[in-house]
Give the backbone structure.
Amino acid sequence: MERIKLIRNNLTFSQLKNKTETYVSSAYDYLNLDQFLTDKEVSYRKNLRKYLETEISPKISQFIEKEEFPLDLIKNLINKFPGILASTIQGYKSANFSQSLATAVSIEIARIDMSLFSFAAIHGGEVAMRTIYELGSEKQKEYYLPKLNTLEFIGAFCLTEPENGSDAYNIKTTAIQDSEGNYVINGKKRWIGQGTIADIFIVWANNPKTKEIEGFIVEKERIGISCKKIEGKLALRCLQNADLIFDNVKIPMENKLEKANSFSNSVSKVFLSSRIGCAWGVIGLCIGAYDVAIKYVIERKQFGKSLSSFQLVQEKLTKIMGNIQAMTFLARRISEYYEKGDATMGMAGLCKSWCTSRGRETIALAREILGGNGILNENYVMRALGDIEALHTGEGTYDINILLAGRELTGKLALV
Ligand SMILES: Cc1cc2nc3c(=O)[nH]c(=O)nc-3n(C[C@H](O)[C@H](O)[C@H](O)COP(=O)(O)OP(=O)(O)OC[C@H]3O[C@@H](n4cnc5c(N)ncnc54)[C@H](O)[C@@H]3O)c2cc1C
């Protein structure tokens, strides 16, 4: 009792009484994430936030309602911030950001809308462009990457199949070389992000000759490709996911990605970066949820008092902030390993799965804080709740990533 009195005296009276009321309006600022950026980078990030908040955030709800992708908004963003979609790639008309600025950019985009982040990740520096950057020949990089950077081309990554999701190692699509050296691709792909609007598809297929999964660049004009939008998603609603069929699609030999020669050395290389990138997206989404929730509790009154003054509300906000802080620490640590070339698949799996699971709790709390208003599209938190579910599953499900981490911790493979 004495102790409680002491704490109350210290906090409530001697420290707070004569102060004007203050609160932490952004989780980003509370964590002081700008400390990892140079002054120039901080001003870039701030300009980006201003642009996203004024030019994209107010317009995004209508696209979410209609399940449409805001391509013109993204094109405007690229014009204003050239090279931003492949911020972790160096050269080829990329923005050439430091790793810290690239993560800050991811946070800012996810903080506004997760479909935009997912588009940028799949098209850009985490997945499609990353695949060409890591596994393509110099000629392929020089031709495709600048066009992808300026959105002259949109890229998609086609691994998952209707019968093979987690079990991607056993995909059925084939790429068989004919007598002239061309590859003929046959198979079905499912859930392909921006499949309906992509100009080039990175297609993963079995080569029966080498008995390996290899990667190919397939242009949308090739004969034999059909595509159907997956309708009715209640998560990542702007992202256009598609079912694709490749029916005897012939591509020239030079469309094979030079270094995409096996699942473990090729697909896994891309997943290493994309899973860590996904964790940063989750952090941005959770920062967005905190920022909405704190504003709401400060402004809303019940029982004659600001919601922010109730103990239970403060507990929820504290949990949210604690989760964001812990996620950021983990992702930053593993990103440092990645930058040095020391990150393992287990680390990436741990980072991605732990962040999405904490993210689910975090966003559910923010949604709860907003009461009835928390289910409205315009208030961010409900759609974030749907989006975190998609992230929990995409880039390898929670279970698969946990099992990859578990294998590393125990030395025992429990996956099959
Ligand atoms: C919004 C969205 C975007 C996507 N974008 C793309 C994309 O652009 N390109 C692409 O190629 N793919 C994409 N995917 C596909 C994604 O990678 C798969 O959904 C994911 O790999 C899981 O496959 P699945 O949905 O078939 O689930 P399944 O593999 O059928 O899994 C169902 C459940 O069983 C569990 N499970 C499966 N195997 C095991 C096991 N061995 N041990 C324990 N549990 C297990 C899973 O964890 C999950 O809970 C996307 C998915 C979504 C939802």
Q: What stands out?
A: Residues 122, 157-160, 165-166, 191-193, 236, 241, 390, 393-394, 396-397, 399-400, 415 surround flavin-adenine dinucleotide (CB under 6 Å). The longest helix spans residues 263-299.
